[in-house]
Specification:
Strand 11 and strand 12 form a beta hairpin. This protein folds into 2 domains: 142 residues, no CATH class; 105 residues, Jelly Rolls. The chain is globular and about 50 Å long. The chain has 316 residues and is of the alpha+beta class. It is 16% helix and 35% strand. The N and C termini lie far apart (53 Å). The strands form 5 sheets. Strands 9-10-11-12-8-7-6-16-17-18-20-19 form a 12-stranded antiparallel sheet, sandwiched between helices. Strands 1-2-3 form a 3-stranded antiparallel sheet, with no helix packed on it. The longest helix has 16 residues.
Length: 316
């Protein structure tokens, strides 16, 4: 057996043990920008945390708790500016009975605030939030594309779209002068019929999402677009994440209230019982874009403003 066949067999063996990609792509659509934004490496080794108080010197702790010399923080206003509302642009007018919204994100231009898209997911009532999409779920994306050349033509209103069917059904279309849109349905009695019906019900909306985290001064090299997402974790609570990406999509950084993975570098700040982490690169991931300097990283974590996320739209 030659090396090429051995490699092929190894990949097939790995694929056989993996979760079906069709079951997670709906969530990947929602998180693709955020994952791009993890391709930075914060200056310094190990885990670094920052305790911030307005106008008070701060003690930096690096390398898993070894104390560093105190340094003076800049005088910073930590009360957030008026939280921005970003349009959802479009929304389904019809969904199957028994679903509740469990994920929401919006994407916007950093310089202008112009809405660029977003993602939403509805799970069966009572489903816990998981990265793996549960059966019976519907997801809707604005401003994302699949673009893999597969599928068959379908009509979504007067617009020609594409239907792809695997263990999920995907409908993708783009009205003239509007962003592309995707509806995905997984694990229902008739994924294709439901996906088409949901897609054909989509209309413009005046609904908005409240963005409750902000970086007042974003380094120019990273000031292309921003994506804000909320994962509700219970009544009135949720994990929020804000990521910034360069115009060429190669560089970015991400802030989140979700605790980092083991061995992942980060800076953190705690205020009013909430902790926000500025994430470094995930272990084993090598990025090709620009990275934040130490000064940029510390300015961001000093100046980030945040408050509890709005999860009034979520169901459980």
């Amino acid at each position: 057996m030659n090396d090429e066949q051995l490699i092929k067999d190894a990949y097939e063996a790995i694929a056989g043990t993996a979760v079906s990609p069709e079951r997670v792509r709906a969530r990947l659509n929602a998180r693709v920008t955020a994952h791009r934004q993890r391709r930075l490496l914060l200056a310094g080794a190990g885990v670094a945390t920052v305790a911030v108080a307005v106008g008070v010197p701060v003690a930096l702790r690096e390398r898993r708790g070894e104390p560093a010399l105190p340094v003076a923080s800049p005088s910073v206003k930590t009360s957030p500016r008026t939280a921005r509302r970003v349009s959802l642009l479009f929304t389904p007018q019809w969904l199957p009975d028994g679903l509740v919204e469990r994920f929401r994100s919006v994407k916007f231009d950093v310089a202008t605030g112009k809405p660029l898209g977003g993602n939403r997911s509805w799970y069966p009532t009572g489903s816990p939030y998981t990265v793996e999409v549960p059966k019976g779920s519907v997801s809707f994306s604005v401003g994302e594309r699949i673009d893999d050349g597969s599928g068959e033509p379908v009509m979504v209103g007067s617009v020609r779209g594409t239907l792809r069917v695997t263990d999920s059904a995907w409908v993708e279309w783009q009205p003239t002068g509007k962003p592309s849109m995707i509806v995905s349905v997984y694990g229902t009695a008739d994924d294709t019929e439901i996906a088409l019906r949901v897609a054909r019900s989509v209309a413009a909306t005046e609904e908005t999402m409240l963005v409750t985290m902000d970086v007042p001064e974003v380094p120019d090299a990273f000031a292309g677009s921003a994506t804000f997402e909320v994962n509700p974790t219970g009544e009135g609570t949720g994990v929020q994440t804000l990521g910034y990406t360069s115009a060429d999509l190669r560089s970015g950084f991400q802030l989140t209230t979700d605790a980092p993975q083991p061995n992942q570098t980060y800076l953190s700040v705690e205020r009013d019982g909430m902790t926000v982490y500025l994430l470094g690169e995930e272990p084993g991931v090598v990025g090709s874009g620009l990275t934040l300097s130490e000064t940029e990283s510390r300015n961001i974590i000093y100046r980030v403003t945040f408050r509890p996320p709005d999860v009034s739209w979520a169901g459980f």
